[in-house]
């Protein structure tokens, strides 16, 4: 009887652990997020300073596919400029094509800075 209780307890803990892992894996992306090469990235763009035209687009966990993460950063930057300034023209601090050829990561994240051009 004690052995059956121990096994039942282990199965319950394993089930709870699997549920937590599944829940955490789903955090950060949604079904509406765009895919880049079949991957979804957690990314956002925020103003770099008091000047809303200057921004930095950050892609989390970009190390898993750095070249695709550049596309996600460009997408976020474009979305930012359209939302705040109504333009999709961007002067990038580093050309995205050059960054795709030789990605530069900050830890496992990729940061791409730019300025919306009106």
Short descriptors:
118 residues; alpha+beta; 43% helix; 20% strand
Tally of individual helices: 3
Estimate the mean pLDDT confidence.
Answer: 82
Radius of gyration based on Cα positions: 20 Å
Distance between the termini: 75 Å
Main sheet record: 5 strands, antiparallel
Q: How many beta strands in the DSSP annotation? A: 5
Which regions have little confidence, pLDDT < 50, spanning 5+ residues?
A: 9-27
Give me the strand/helix succession: HEEHEHEE
Describe the global form: globular
Percent helix among the residues? 40-55%
What does this structure look like?
The chain contains 3 helices and 5 strands. The termini are far apart. The chain has helices at 2-26, 66-85, 96-101; strands at residues 43-47, 54-59, 90-92, 105-106, 109-116. A hairpin with a 6-residue loop joins strand 1 (43-47) and strand 2. The chain has 118 residues and is α+β, with helices and mostly antiparallel strands. It is globular. Strands 1, 2, 3, 4 and 5 form a 5-stranded antiparallel sheet that branches.
Concise description?
This protein is of the alpha+beta class and 118 residues long. Helix content is 43%, strand content 20%.
Helix/strand layout:
Layout: H1 2-26, E1 43-47, E2 54-59, H2 66-85, E3 90-92, H3 96-101, E4 105-106, E5 109-116
Antiparallel strand pairs: 1-2, 2-5, 3-5, 4-5
């Amino acid at each position: 009887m004690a052995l059956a209780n121990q096994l039942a307890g282990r199965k319950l803990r394993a089930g709870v652990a699997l549920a937590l892992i599944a829940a955490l894996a789903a955090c950060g992306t949604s079904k509406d997020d765009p895919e880049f090469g079949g991957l979804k990235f957690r990314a956002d763009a925020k103003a770099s300073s008091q000047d809303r035209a200057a921004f930095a687009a950050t892609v989390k966990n970009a190390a898993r596919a750095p070249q695709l993460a550049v596309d996600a950063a460009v997408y976020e930057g474009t979305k930012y400029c359209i939302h705040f300034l109504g333009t999709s023209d961007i002067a990038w601090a580093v050309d995205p094509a050059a960054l795709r050829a030789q990605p530069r990561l900050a830890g496992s994240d990729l940061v791409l800075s730019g300025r919306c051009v009106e």
